[in-house]
Amino acid sequence: MSFFSFGQSAEIDVVLTDAETRKKAEHKTEDGKKDKYFLFYDGETVSGKINVTLKNPRKRLEHQGIKIEFVGQIELYYDRGNHHEFVSLVKDLARPGELTQSQTFDFEFTHVEKPYETYTGQNVKLRYFLRATVSRRLNDISKEMDIVVHTLSTYPELNSSIKMEVGIEDCLHIEFEYNKSKYHLKDVIVGKIYFLLVRIKIKHMEIDIIKRETTGTGPSVYHENDTIAKYEIMDGAPVRGESIPIRLFLAGYEMTPTMRDINKKFSVRYYLNLVLIDEEERRYFKQQEITLWRKGDVVRKSMSSQATIGAQRFEGSASSESALEKEELREDCR
């Protein structure tokens, strides 16, 4: 509503063409609340209608034009005055004139490019929205409608396993292995930990999933770490030669796909952090980056079977390889 509207104003309502059938997705807002928004993918058409309803039917509404915009925008919280738009499309719905009654305007943005996933983080927000505007001399009447965009990926052709060692000379030597380095958001992390040399008393071991959000460039770079999950592997002292399996289900955690250098403004990366704590409360840890990706609801059978075969192959080969490695290390320790 406008104080300078001379007795006349209007309400704007944005209605999507397929509002009754289009899927909605939950998304966390800046204040931490979860809301549901219409879900779109890259390349999909965005269409609908704008309803402009006059508040006083007996008076006309003068305007300088009516338009609808589709905007993709990045906002850095430390620089809130500047909005970085990477998508900006405009459709003029009416030329300057006047409305004597409530009116509906159709719009369509065909095959809209939506290159990035919707994201709300600690220091940055990436959003897509429709903005309908009735332009006026003193003040505009506008209405925004947010949507959520998900980016889909295909099963990665190269998905090698991760092998790492954590060690303290002559005290501790641990090798851990994960079945792959790229996981979809509902995947399962399968791995094993081998204790090759244990001369300190370890009382606790866990794996953390850490999300690292990086914003800004050059000297104005901010890193924000957030522990998404903690998974206890062991509570008690291991012995040399022991092997502990890992199976961590990702579906229960709120995560996004890995986002690298989004419009040269921010990145979101994920790490597996192996943490060991000894009886004197000393902490030993090792981090390894993993790639997360989102797959569609419909997955080809060949794709899922490849994943199953890969996991079986890993479990079989890991046990045989580790046996050889242990034997070699035992000989070294003698």
Shape: elongated
Major β-sheet annotation? 7 strands, mixed
DSSP E strands, number: 22
- Proportion of strand residues: over 45%
pLDDT below 50 for ≥5 consecutive residues: which ranges?
1-5, 298-334
Helix fraction bin: under 10%
Structural class: mainly beta
How many helix segments? 1
First-residue to last-residue Cα separation: 84 Å
N-to-C series of helices and strands: EEEEEEEEEEEEEEEEEEEEEEH
Average pLDDT level = 83
Spatial extent as radius of gyration:
27 Å
Protein name: Vacuolar protein sorting-associated protein 26B
Keywords: Protein transport, Transport
InterPro entries: Arrestin-like_C, Vps26-related
Pfam families: Vps26
Give an overview in words.
With 334 residues, the protein is mainly beta. Helices cover 10% and strands 53% of the residues. It is built from 1 helix and 22 strands. A hairpin with a 3-residue loop joins strand 20 (259-262) and strand 21 (266-278). The longest helix is centred in the C-terminal third of the chain and has 33 residues, at 301-333. The relative contact order is 0.15.
Secondary structure layout plus pairing:
Elements: E1 10-16, E2 24-28, E3 34-40, E4 46-54, E5 61-63, E6 66-76, E7 83-94, E8 97-99, E9 103-109, E10 119-120, E11 124-134, E12 141-149, E13 162-168, E14 172-178, E15 182-184, E16 188-198, E17 202-215, E18 222-235, E19 243-249, E20 259-262, E21 266-278, E22 283-293, H1 301-333
Parallel strand pairs: 3-12, 15-22
Antiparallel strand pairs: 1-4, 2-3, 4-9, 5-8, 6-7, 6-11, 10-11, 11-12, 13-14, 14-16, 16-19, 17-18, 17-21, 20-21, 21-22
